[in-house]
């Protein structure tokens, strides 16, 4: 993020939102691909390939469930940075 003399620039906030949105899209596409691989491929029930796709689906599901928390923390960090930047009185060299 770019820092101006008073903190984070307001123009950087949409970039953060786009990054969060792209992360959600990439996770959902990855989960879809793993689901399709697991359902269409002729894996044995307990094969390494089947276990890998199931583990990948589980991991992506866990990561996706954390996205709202990541978004709230990111919003809080941006808000705090904007407030601190707005009330900062010392001169930056």
What does it look like?
The longest helix is centred in the last third of the chain and has 40 residues. The model has no long low-confidence stretch (mean pLDDT 85). The protein has one domain. The protein has a two-stranded antiparallel ribbon with strand order 1-2. Helices cover 73% and strands 4% of the residues. The protein has 93 residues and is mainly alpha-helical. It is built from two helices and two strands; from the N terminus they run ββαα.
Q: In DSSP terms, counting alpha (H) and pi (I) runs of 4 or more, how many helices? A: 2
Our estimate of the beta-strand percent is under 5%
- Please give the radius of gyration in angstroms: 20 Å
Which outline best applies? rod-shaped
The neighbouring-strand order within the major sheet is 1-2
Distance between termini?
19 Å
The overall pLDDT, averaged over residues, is: 85
The SS-based structural class is mainly alpha
**Spans where pLDDT lies below 50 across 5 or more residues:** none
In total, how many beta strands? 2
The largest β sheet comes out as: 2 strands, antiparallel
- Encode the helix/strand succession as letters: EEHH
As for the number of domains, it is 1
Provide the helix percentage.
over 70%
